[in-house]
Design a protein that fits this description.
InterPro entries: 2TM_dom, DUF1707_SHOCT-like. Keywords: Membrane, Transmembrane, Transmembrane helix. Pfam families: 2TM, DUF1707. This protein is an all-alpha fold. The chain folds into two domains: 55 residues, no CATH class; 70 residues. It is 79% helix and 0% strand. The chain has six helices and no strands. α1 packs antiparallel against α2, α1 runs parallel beside α3 and α5 packs antiparallel against α6. The longest helix has 40 residues. The radius of gyration is 27 Å and the shape is rod-shaped. The mean pLDDT is 92.
Length: 135
């Protein structure tokens, strides 16, 4: 079966892998430049595969600094969403407590329990995220 024709996306992916190999010390500059030139001249995916066949591509992609940056950005966003949901839920519970207190005269401050419990969850989420951001 003939090789599949390579497109720009495949060439760019191979070029990225080669760049990571250079940055992580798997390729010297001269070999990187040679392989990069051949990657952009390649017509098939088989040609591209041979350019990275001797490289630990999975390890290169795993240690890509852009991957870590994306993971940290996602973790920060997740912590922010959790915090905003917590604040909105707390305000809603306080509003319900106030409405019940004004309407029926029952002033027991029950929102302290769900706010406290949920707050422990938020703190347990935010602290590890912030610790990884600073490291």
């Amino acid at each position: 079966m003939p090789d599949i024709r390579a497109g720009d996306r495949e060439r760019e992916r191979t070029a990225t892998d080669l760049g990571q190999a250079l940055a992580q010390g798997y390729l010297p500059m001269a070999e990187y430049e040679d392989r990069l030139g051949r990657a952009f001249a390649a017509n098939s995916t088989g040609e591209l595969d041979t350019l990275v066949a001797d490289l630990p591509v999975a390890r290169l992609r795993h240690h890509d600094p852009r991957r870590r940056t994306a993971q940290l950005r996602a973790a920060r966003l997740s912590a922010r969403i959790h915090l905003v949901a917590y604040l909105a839920g707390s305000l809603l519970m306080l509003g319900i407590w106030l409405a019940v207190g004004l309407g029926g005269g029952a002033w027991y401050f029950w929102p302290v329990w769900p706010i406290l419990g949920w707050g422990i969850g938020v703190v347990g989420h935010v602290i590890p995220v912030m610790a990884h951001v600073r490291s």
